Amino acid sequence: MRRQTSRNSVQSELIHMPWHISLPDETPKTSNELINLSSKKLANHISRAPKCKKYQFISNFTLQRINDANELEAILKKKEIYNSSFRVSVGEQIDLNSTEHFLPLEMFDDWDYDSFDPEATAVWKNMEALAILPPYTDWQRVLVVNYKPGFNHWDVTPTGTSTSYRISRLHLYFPFEDPYKFADRCVTALKARETAENAIRFRFLCKHISSDGCFAPGRQLEQSILRRTSEEIYCVFKQLYESFHIALAVGKHLNHDDCAVIKQPTIGCLDSMKYIPATASNSTSVKFLLDGFRRKTLLSDRNVFHALRFVNQECEIVRRLPLFIVANEKPIPLEEYEQHNLTQTSKTIKYLQNTWIERSTMHAHRLLSRIGEGTFDIGVSNWKIYSVMKLKRLVEQVLYRMQDALRDLLLESTAAYVNYLMNDCSAILEIGDEYCWDGNLIDSPFEPNRPAVFYLTLEMGQESPHYSTDPYTFPETLRYIMDDILTECHFIHAFEPSLMQSLIFAENFFLSSVGLLDPVIVKQRKALLEYYQKSLLPLRAYATRYTAYRELFFTNVKEFVEQIKNADKSSSEIKEDIALQIRMRENLEHTVPFFIVIGPYWINVQPLREALISKRLELTAALLKMLTEKLRLKTADVIGCYNAINERMCEKPVSIEHIYDIRAYMEDVPELVTRLEDRMRSILYEYEILEGFLHNLPDADFQQKWNALAYPRLVLKQMVSVKEFHETEVDRFRKQQFADEATFTASIEDINAYISKFTTLYDVSKVSEMSVEVRRLWKTLQELIDQGHIMNRRQELFEMAPISLNNLFELRTNFQAYRELWTVAADYLKLEETWIGNPLVSVDLEGVRRGLQQTHDSLKDLLPLFRDQPQLLTVVEHFVTVVEAFRPNLDIMELLKCPYLEAIHWGQLAKEIGVKGKLSVDVGFDVFLEHGFRDHMYTVRRVVVKAEQLRSEQEARWAEEERIRRIEEEYRRARAERRQNRNEI
């Protein structure tokens, strides 16, 4: 039974292949018509040997009867079986008169020749056998990989290649088989195919011959049949009559004409028509039986038969409708799969709810309306009459057929849906709830036997890795997809209300569909949910393994480099860090896959993998760049030191001292250059680190490095040039020294004459001008003395006699007293002006007193120095008198700055002294001098004493009030404490 079912499946599969056959002078026809004609009688005309002759007993599967392909080809050639016999022209139009085969040989394979059962015996696995493969030129050695039950197809791989082929059993020979039995099997299939192809050619030849009515029944026979039957029955009879006589004529022609391609087949489908006239004795009984049969059967009218036929055709169309998406070229995301399913199911449901009912109603209404009144009157409007009519039984029959078609559609679609989603990964169902992914990240222990269904992308989140679609949504979403379509199929209107429009039906009259709690649906749903809930465990475990890469994924390159910089690591430590990053990147390339398949999920890991590898590359590049910058700064510092040496040596000397300073510095230059060379050698070692990592320096850094290496030679060469230049500069400065000496002598004479003339001035009214000029002359003297010291040092460097500066020192000593006189006088007048003009509140009495004393002492010290100069002595005495005249103002200023004076006291002073205006400490002392406060010392002192007394009384009063307040506060606090301690009554 299994083999017979499988053979039918193979034949059905091959029948629907795109074969094309054409007559020599007519339009090409499709092979479906050929196959349909041949398949009806195929079983009757395939010559089969008795089973006892086919059966072979194999005691040892290791026995090799034939090991060479040439031996097998020789045995097949003895049976007149050539390699070209296994070839079929696929996708081409075959000439009807040609000898080319157009039917697959496997359609005619007799399975009884099989020497063993592949499902029961596994000896064929990975066994070497002989097979004939496209282009069917020779037999070759292959390795048997897989077996497809039901179709008797075998997957083989030629030796030395990786290409896989799926071939039929007739194209495969096992070494343990009897080669002669295998040849008989091939001969039987070839003969059966030849017979079938010849019959098909004959049928199509007969079908496409135009008879022009010459083979039609005669007029007498036509009238006789029309009297007894209808026009439709005569048309059917006429068609059969013409086909029969055309076949007889074609067969007669083929027998006379020696045609090697098409021969008249001996097929029993064209039986001659036999006419047996009815006698008078049995006509009554036949009529009685015919009437009884017509009353009971629904098929009493041909229109009913055709109506049922059309309804059955529509039901067959429904059974083949695609309800779910059960095939995809590649895995797709769940959202896309859900959307595609929604589109597909919407089309199918729309067809079921509208087109199916409309087409079925249209066919039934068109055919039943021809019958008219009677038991099939579709215009009946009485329910009692309708309930006893044959039409009621017919509609029930249609209803059952439609419900059966709908149930078949749902059961087959849901089974295909579940089978497609559960892609044969038994390892998923065997894992426990505490599963952890212990293996590597590349090899999946959950590789399914069929391609994955869904597409996921592994992504890195802030908290943990996650997938582009939440895996926990898969079970419920897939369940809802199946349950929603099952629910929708409960709302398909029945056929009856649309056909019987004269009757009234309920609005919710729907076809009975498969329920959500149907045992088959429950079993399928349970298996689907269990499979996908189990599949979440390896998904979650696999994603958890990527948590170790989260820190790397979110590492900020700038912050990472800043941390390395702040750590102030050495170049060798940075080298270790760079090597570590490179090793970690290589480890990522070998341990993280581009993708992985886990059960029904195809997981794309490539974006995350590339991001992690890119981050390692960025960190490596950042460390190399940081090391390059570090070496650039070090090299630039060395070059800066060389440049500083050059700049110091190449400074243009401005004096002989400068030349001697540069010469002293140049004595240390060789030692400095040696130290810089040692320093550069250590930097070169660090440059070798970059070369070890094959890091190319920027052009500027490369040039900088070699410039630093070439600088020592340039510096030493520059020293020679500088020394030659200094020799010429010494001669120039010696000539300049002679000119400067003459200029210096003239300057001394000029300032001596000017000071001698200036010291005869003694006008006290021009104190400020005299002090400014005195300071200028003093500064000039100091500059000349300093210049004299400089010239003496140069004289020493030029090995010349020093210049005498005694005249300058004597002139400075004589001018010092004159400078002190006018400087002290001018400074005192400025102080006195600030004391009098500024507000009284801002005047510091101690500062005034100190300034007066210092000025008085300085002037007293000058009196002995000017005894021989009466005019200047008078000037000193004048300024002493001025200082002493200001002393009485200190007393009045001290009284007026009393802090206890208030507005009322200032008003009393203004009233008693006669001042018209408001007085306060914010007024300048010149106002008080202007109103003669020095003459009212007694009045001012009296008001100040009174203010002090009032302030003392006020402070005493405040102290008493504060004492009373504290006593009251202590009393209130004590009373509150007594109230808290009082007992309750």
Structural features, described:
With 985 residues, the chain is mostly helical. Helices cover 62% and strands 5% of the residues. The protein has 31 helices and twelve strands. It has a five-stranded antiparallel sheet. A four-stranded mixed sheet has the order 10-9-12-11. A hairpin with a 6-residue loop joins β1 and β2 (29-30). The two termini are 112 Å apart. Mean pLDDT is 78; it is low at 1-49 and 267-283.
Give a nutshell description of this structure.
With 985 residues, this protein is mostly helical. The chain has 31 helices and twelve strands. The chain starts with a helix and ends with a helix.
| Rg from Cα | 63 Å
Structural class by sheet pairing and helices: mainly alpha
Portion in helices: 55-70%
End-to-end span in angstroms?
112 Å
Q: Low-confidence runs (pLDDT<50, min 5 residues)? A: 1-49, 267-283
Q: Strand share of the residues?
A: 5-15%
Walk across the major sheet and give the strand order. 7-6-5-4-8
Q: Tell me, rounded to a whole number, the average pLDDT.
A: 78
Largest sheet: 5 strands, antiparallel
Find the count of extended strands (DSSP E, 2+ residues).
12
How many DSSP helices? 31
Principal-axes geometry comes out as elongated
Q: What oligomeric state best describes the polypeptide chains here?
A: single chain
